[in-house]
TrEMBL record:
It holds the Pfam family Fur_reg_FbpA. InterPro entries: Fur_reg_FbpA. This is Fur-regulated basic protein FbpA. It comes from the Bacteria. It comes from Alkalicoccobacillus gibsonii.
Length: 52
């Protein structure tokens, strides 16, 4: 794999790990690992907008 693909995979895995800690496993019936990095970032951004 190229460096860019590696960086994308690492970033995606980091965000998925954070989402899993908040018991978020799916978006619209798809597992997080099936989503693109952009989609995972959207889910994570939504998490950060929620009131605590």
């Amino acid at each position: 794999m190229g460096r860019l693909e590696d960086a994308v995979d690492i970033r995606k895995q980091q965000l998925i790990s954070k989402l899993l800690k908040h018991h978020i496993y799916k978006k619209d019936g798809q597992q997080l690992y099936e989503l693109t990095l952009s989609e995972v970032e959207q889910v994570y951004a939504t998490l950060n907008k929620r009131p605590s």
